[in-house]
Amino acid sequence: MGRLIVVSNRVATPTETKGSAGGLAVGVFGALKDAGGVWFGWSGDVVSETVANAGPTLEQDGAVTFATVGLTRKDYDQYYRGFSNATLWPVFHYRNDLARYEREEYAGYRRVNAWLAHKLIRLLEPDDVIWIHDYHLIPFAEALRNEGITNRIGFFLHIPFPAPQILLNIPPHEELVKSLSCYDLLGFQTATDQLAFHDYVTRHARGTVSADGLVEAFGRKLRTGVYRIGVFPDEIAEQAKRYESRQHVLELKQSLEGRKLIMSVDRLDYSKGLVERFRAFEQLLERSPEWRGNVTLVQIAPPTRSDVATYQKIRQDLEYEAGRINGRYSGLDYTPIRYLNQQYDRWKLMSLFRESQIGFVTPLHDGMNLVAKEYVAAQNPDDPGVLVLSIFAGAAAELSGALLVNPHDAIGMCDALQRALQMPLDARQRRHEINMAALRKNDLGVWRDSFLSDLRSVPVQQTGTGGGR
Ligand code: GDG
C-alpha cells in the first residue's frame, strides 16, 4: 500500500491530533499513521517572502511528516481572505449577495495553489495516494498534473456544492470545474451536492455521467461519491460523561436555578443562521409567556475570519439581536440569551451539551454540521436532550430522530422548541437511539476508510490536465 499524502489549508499540529482537537484532525491522522505519509499545508502564519520560500518546515511524528509553509501577506489576502473566503465560501453557501469577485484575488488563489503544489512535489513518491481537502484547494490537482504528477488524487469538499445556477455567479466557474476534473475521485457530503456537480458537468460542460457514476469531462475520467463525515460517538459520550461533574458544569447548573437549557455552538459565521435562531427563540418567549424566566439559550460562537468584512457585520448583527431580545425579556435575575463570543475546550462543550434539554442547530446551509452529531453523541441515554436541526444541514439526511426545521420559519422553529421542551422521556429516548444508531453506523472511521479505499482502487490515468473543450 502506498503512503498517504493529506493536503489541507491548515495542518493540525502533532499535539492537536492527540488531544481534544476536532474529530477531523484525529480521524485524518489515524489514516496517516496507518499508511505512513505526509500532512501538508499552511502553518497559519503570515511571513516574509524569504521565510515562505524557505519552507516547508518538517516535523516528524512516527511514520507521519507534518510539512507546513507560511504565506506572505499578499498571498494570504488574495488566496485565503479573498477568493476562498470572500468569493467561494459565500457562493457555495448560496450567499451571492455577500460575495465579491476580484480578478487579482482569483489569480492569487491559483498562484498560491500552484506554489503549494510545487512545494509538495519534492516530498512525493511514485505510489503515494494524495487526498486534498476543501474549497481553498480546488486547483491543487491541476497544478500537480501540470508538473507531470500522475498519482491518484482525491478531493473532499467539506462544504455544499451549489446548484449550477448559483455557481454561474462566479465568473471563472468553468475553470473551477475543469480543475475539479483533474482529480480521480471527488467526495461530497450529500447526494444533493453530488447531483449539483453532475448537473453542472452535463448541462454546462458538455460532459457525461454514466449510469455507473463515471464522469467524463474536459478530456478526463473521474469518479464521484457521497461520503458523509461523522464523529466517533462513543468517545464523545465517554468524555461528556467524564466531564459532567467538573466545576464549569456545576456552576452552569447552579446559575440556571432549575431553568431549561437550550445549547447552540457555532463558529461565528453567517451560514450558521444565528440571527434567525435568536429570533425564533424570541418567538418562544413572545408567544408562550410561561417560558419567560424558565428557559435559557446559551449560544457559544467563537469568532472566525474576523478580518473579512462580512464576518464583522454578522458579529455586529448578532450583538444587536442578543442585546435587543435580552433588553425585552430579562428580569433582575434572568437573562434569556447568554451569548459567549469565545472558544471553549472541546470536552467542556460536550459536557454542556449533555446538561441541556435541547441542541438548537439551525444553519441556513451547511456541508454536514458536526455540532449536530456531537450534540447527539454527548447526551445521557437515560435522560437525553432533543436535537432541533435545520433541513439545510447535511446531517439532516441521517439524523431522523431530530426535529427538523426550516431556519427561515421563525414560528416553525418556535413550535419545534415547544415540542422538544415538553417531549416525554420515552419519546426522547426513542429519538436518541435512532440518532445514535445512525452515528455509529457511519462514524468518522467509515467516512475516512471508504473514501480512501475508493481512491486507492481508481485506475491510474496517464493523461495530464485534459484537453478541455
Ligand atoms: C466545515 C463545514 C462540515 C465550535 N466551537 C468550538 C469548537 N467548535 C467545533 C465543533 C465542531 C467544529 O468546531 C465545527 O464543525 P462544523 O461541522 O459544525 O462546521 P464548520 O466549522 O463550518 O466545518 C461543515 C465540516 O467542515 C466537516 O466536514 O461538517 O459543514 O462547514 O467540531 O465542536 N471546538 C472547540 N471550542 C469551540 O468553542 N474546542
TrEMBL record:
InterPro entries: Glyco_trans_20, Trehalose_OtsA
Top-level enzyme category: transferase
Pfam families in UniProt: Glyco_transf_20 (PF00982)
Molecular function terms from GO: alpha,alpha-trehalose-phosphate synthase (UDP-forming) activity
Function as written in the Swiss-Prot or TrEMBL entry: Probably involved in the osmoprotection via the biosynthesis of trehalose. Catalyzes the transfer of glucose from UDP-alpha-D-glucose (UDP-Glc) to D-glucose 6-phosphate (Glc-6-P) to form trehalose-6-phosphate. Acts with retention of the anomeric configuration of the UDP-sugar donor.
Keyword terms of this UniProt record: Glycosyltransferase, Transferase
Reaction(s) catalysed by this chain's protein: D-glucose 6-phosphate + UDP-alpha-D-glucose = alpha,alpha-trehalose 6-phosphate + UDP + H(+)
Family, per entry: Belongs to the glycosyltransferase 20 family.
Pathway entry: Glycan biosynthesis; trehalose biosynthesis
Assembly description: Homotetramer.
Record's protein name: Trehalose-6-phosphate synthase
GO biological process: trehalose biosynthetic process
Species name: Paraburkholderia ginsengiterrae
Enzyme Commission number(s) of this protein: 2.4.1.15
Key word Amino-acid biosynthesis present: no
